[in-house]
Amino acid sequence: MIYFIGGTKFREFKYFEILNKLREKNPNISESFFDAELKEDENFLEKLMTNSIFSSQELVVLKRAQKIKKFETFLKNIANLDIINKQIIIDYEKEDGKLNAELKKVLDKLEKDKKIKNFLFLKDEDIEIQNYVMLELKINKKNASSLLEMIGTNPFKVKNEIEKIKIFLDGEKFDLKKLKNIISIEKEYKIYEITKEILSNRINEVMKYLEQTKEYMGVLYSLYNELEVLYKIKILKKEGKQFSSNYNTFKIQFEKVKEAFKINNRIPNSYAIFKKLELEKNYSLESLKKLVYRSWEIENSIKTGKIEMSAGVERLIMQISSLYKIDCIIK
Predict the structure, then answer these.
(1) Of 179, 202, 218, which marks where a domain is finished?
(2) pLDDT score of 330
(3) Domain at 298, CATH number
(4) For this UniProt entry, which residues form the secretion signal (predicted)?
(5) What is the number of other CB atoms lying within 10 angstroms of the CB of residue 213?
(6) Both 38 and 165 in a single domain?
(7) What three-state secondary structure class fits 91?
(8) Rounded CA gap, 125 and 129, in Å?
(9) Which residues pair with 63 in a beta bridge?
(10) What DSSP designation does 176 have?
């Protein structure tokens, strides 16, 4: 059987899944890997054309098939070979998820003729990676999303972290707090945690973190973004919009206002906005308006050399602290 796996980075989870299933089904299967980027496509073809009725099962993998010129012809030639005792995986990366019309036509025809199985990932959707985590760790969607926030969505890193978690848990119940000590947390998530600490008025450890890492601009951009979201929530509340503390109810409410949170033509996950409700209540509308403007002002001053990064960000943090829970109830 020929398995064609093509599209965005999330295709790699299907690649791992098929690879593992074939290995489980055939524990003694011999494996051969070829890389089209290293001009090994000819070696790959030679391997496929070498047949023996006495040979055991073989796994033959071609990586980075997108590097092959006239790939459609190449694929049709493979599909027409008389292949015995071989399982073939062709991995075709397309970062933007857009396959050309000719290739899609060839894939459809070959699948219709039962010469190939296609697995296409044409949209960069988090749902694929989320499903993989849920399946592997047997956890719910909420826990999977929280874990991915911490470790990021790079397929190879996720796979490695999942294996590490399985070994650590050794059959025990999933506990995200315990896992923080053994997983490799993404820098972006650490900045997110630091931002949350600032907005919760817990700034002692924040200053130590900034002194050690010098992530002043990362924290500034994160604060700017968070404050804008909190400001939008506060404005919507002032306009009479209701936001429940129950997530299932909030999801329904969010559908009516989600356009207000769109950034770069993308609407954020409803749970990400839901988690900000606990922070928004600690600041008044006027305070958030001041802080959003102040964030922009400090960013501009740093970029134009009017102020040092460290001084600017530290001043913003102190101003946020000074406005924490000051006249924050909307009547």
Answers:
(1) 179
(2) 46
(3) 1.20.272.10
(4) none
(5) 14
(6) no
(7) strand
(8) 8
(9) 35
(10) H
On whether residue 202 sits in a domain, the answer given is yes
Looking at residue 96, its pLDDT comes to: 79
Which tokens belong to 202?
Answer: 């817990």
Residue 179 exposed, middle or buried by CB count within 10 Å (0-12, 13-18, 19+): buried
Give residue-wise pLDDT tens across range 269-280: 888 899 899 999
Residue 30's Cα: distance from chain center in Å? 33
Q: What is the DSSP letter of 16?
A: H
Residue 151's domain comprises 126-179
pLDDT value for 169: 87
Q: What is the DSSP string of 109-128?
A: HHHHTTS-EEEEE-S--HHH
Backbone angles phi, psi at 30, to 5 degrees: -85, 145
Q: Compute the distance between CA of residue 13 and CA of residue 11 in angstroms, rounded to an integer.
A: 5
Residue 19 phi/psi, 5-degree rounding, is: -55, -50
CA distance 318 to 203: 9
If asked whether residues 158 and 53 sit together in one domain, one would say no
Indicate the number of domains in the chain: 3
Residue 242 gets which letter from DSSP? -
Amino acid of residue 232:
K
Read off the tokens for 318.
Answer: 């102190």
Q: Apex CA 321: angle with CA 319 and CA 323, to 5°?
A: 75
Across the beta sheet with 2-7, the strand order is 30-35, 58-63, 86-93, 2-7, 117-121
Contact criterion met (CB below 8 Å) for 175 and 137: no
